[in-house]
Amino acid sequence: MMWDGRLLEELGDRLSGLRGRVTPNAEMDKITWFRAGGPAEALFQPADEEDLSAFLKAVPQSVPLTVVGVGSNLLVREGGIPGFVVRLSAKGFGEVEVTGPNRIRAGAAAPDKRVAAVALEAGIGGFHFYHGIPGSIGGALRMNAGANGVETRERVVEVHALDRGGNAVVLSNEEMGYTYRHSGAAAGLIFTGVVMEGYPEAQDAIRAAMDAVQHHRETVQPIREKTGGSTFKNPPGKSAWKLIDEAGCRGLMIGGAQMSPMHCNFMINTGTATGYDLEHLGETVRARVLEHSGIRLEWEIKRIGRFRPGREVQELLGQML
To answer: pTM of this prediction?
Structure first.
């Protein structure tokens, strides 16, 4: 789908004075790690928090806004994304610094691996797990990202954000409402940064933990493929990959999308997959796992945008009930 440009025309002078970059018909397949999906009607990349606040105040609340990070855990549907996609850049939101004993302040666009590296340099333990998460801190805050037995919620002191009106908001750890791979924070908030806290630890011990994380990723995950990471959340007391394997879905393909033969909870684009292929494959796996084990897998990958007419993916789980 191509948008006709009316959104930017209707906003007119409202966007004048912004220092960030506005791109109409932005190609989201260039952003997501799956390298698939339709365009955004418009993409805004703010220069800094002040610029983002001005943008939010200028754009009517009737205009849809979708916030994305580096696109590592994102599936964009073929019909594209209406309204604005907001993407924070490392230049304006990527700073990471030690602010006190065992405390780190990080911008929402800071890569998770960068936070782990700064913690190592400062001798702050508890951040090694970020070395194995290929995303940014904003996404980690939103979904309570975790790995190797540690979750983001264990490190958060306070989260800084802007609401839909461009007003600054600060949330405590408790106010974030964290559960497994989920935050209860209002969906309309755009996270801009966070204060996190670890504990004193020898650099050799931190480095060894980071090396173990890297070794695990390289040996059991298809990190060199076009993938979105873990496709489904682990159900309580279960491993999603085991359920997928037991349902006979390891290596399953639909179009150019495949459940990785290496790690069958990783969905990959073998080269020609569309957003439709990927979501259809995921729903097929969910249906087969439900039929085989009685367990409903929940998506961990975030799916956004509209279906292209005639290419809608109906939830196969609903058809089985």
So the answer is: 0.90
Quote the domain boundaries for residue 47. 6-90
For the stretch 26-65, pLDDT in tens is 999 999 999 999 999 999 999 999 999 999 999 999 999 9
CATH number at residue 53: 3.30.43.10
Residue 1 falls inside a structural domain = no
3-state DSSP helix/strand/coil % of the chain, to nearest 5 = 35, 25, 40
Q: Which residues are catalytic?
A: 181, 230, 300
Percent of the chain with pLDDT over 70: 99
How many domains, in total, are found in the chain? 3
74, 188 in Cβ contact below 8 A? no
Q: Is residue 211 part of a domain?
A: no
Same structural domain, 105 and 182: yes
Provide the 3-class DSSP secondary structure of residue 16. Answer: coil
Q: Does 216 map to a domain?
A: no
Amino acid at position 47, single letter: A
User: What is residue 320's predicted lDDT score, i.e. its pLDDT?
Assistant: 63
Is residue 214 included in any domain, yes or no? no
Could you tell me the sign of the dihedral formed by the alpha carbons of 190, 179, 268, 1, in that order?
Answer: negative
Q: What is the CATH number of the domain that holds 192?
A: 3.30.465.10
**CA-to-CA distance for 36 and 226, rounded, in angstroms?**
9
Q: Name the residue with higher pLDDT: 95 or 149.
A: 95
Largest CA distance in the chain: 57
pLDDT value of residue 321: 56
Residue 316 pLDDT: 75
Sheet hosting strand 226-230, strand order edge to edge: 226-230, 266-269, 257-259, 253-254
Cα distance between residue 277 and residue 237, in whole Å: 30
